[in-house]
Amino acid sequence: MLSSSKSTVGAMLRVTDVAIERGYRRLLQGIGLSVAAGELWQLVGANGLGKTSFLRALAGLSRLGVEGDIDHAGQFLYQGHMPGLKPLLTPLENLRWHPSGIVDPDEDRLCHALAAVGLAGYEETPVHNLSAGQQRRVGLARLWATEAPLWLLDEPFTAIDVTGAELLEQRMVEHVDAGGAVVFTSHQPNRFAGRLNVLDLADYAV
């Protein structure tokens, strides 16, 4: 059974003895992780190992097949590997009505977020008229429109170009430098170098 609370002391996220099952098959067990303010963590492992399942468990989106303790110290933003957009809505509307409820609905802030990801002038364009890369950027604009201290990001560098990847790297660094924390999965190379903490889920594979 999964135990989840908001009572961690000295950490934004604390994971104790977590196990992940999928389709009645145990993938991972005994996972421990403590994420403090100012830390950047990457989850690594082969395809099918359970990285997305584990990240979804951290966000409280997967409870069946999850055992152990997952404790959050405050608000967090989860961004899945898909943009999570309504195609008939505009970028502004998608940001304004994000189901997490922790994206700032202030119009100026949302416009600034879209401009930060290179979508100035597309605020009122229906998302289905945008390219796949632009749609990805709409989703990533949430990282400029939230004040959540902890970010859980699943494959955030997928389907964005080199410029977009550099912009995202800069934003993630800015966030942890300001006292936030990031946990992400990615198969793409990055330039975080010595400041990156790595959790290899292969160490917890069953």
Overview of the molecule:
The protein is an alpha/beta fold and 206 residues long. The chain has six helices and nine strands. The radius of gyration is 17 Å and the shape is globular. It starts with a strand and ends in a 6-residue tail after the last strand. The relative contact order is 0.22. The N terminus is likely disordered.
Q: Helices and strands: which structural class?
A: alpha/beta
Overall pLDDT: 90
Helical content stands at 25-40%
Q: What spatial form do the alpha-carbon principal axes imply?
A: globular
Biggest pleated sheet: 5 strands, parallel
Number of helices: 6
Radius of gyration: 17 Å
* End-to-end C-alpha gap: 18 Å
Q: Can you write the helix and strand succession as a string?
A: EEEEHEEHHHHEHEE
In terms of DSSP E residues, the strand content is 25-35%
* Strand order in the largest sheet: 6-7-8-4-9
Q: Regions with pLDDT < 50 over 5+ consecutive residues?
A: 1-8
Number of E-state strands:
9
Produce the secondary structure layout.
Elements: E1 2-5, E2 13-22, E3 25-35, E4 40-44, H1 51-58, E5 66-72, E6 76-79, H2 91-96, H3 107-116, H4 132-140, H5 142-145, E7 150-154, H6 162-177, E8 181-185, E9 196-200
Parallel strand pairs: 1-5, 4-8, 4-9, 6-7, 7-8
Antiparallel strand pairs: 2-3, 2-5
In short:
The chain is α/β, with parallel strands linked by helices and 206 residues long. It has 6 helices and 9 strands; from the N terminus they run ββββαββααααβαββ. The chain has a 5-stranded parallel beta sheet with strand order 6-7-8-4-9, with helices on both faces. A 4-stranded mixed beta sheet has the order 1-5-2-3, covered by helices on one side.
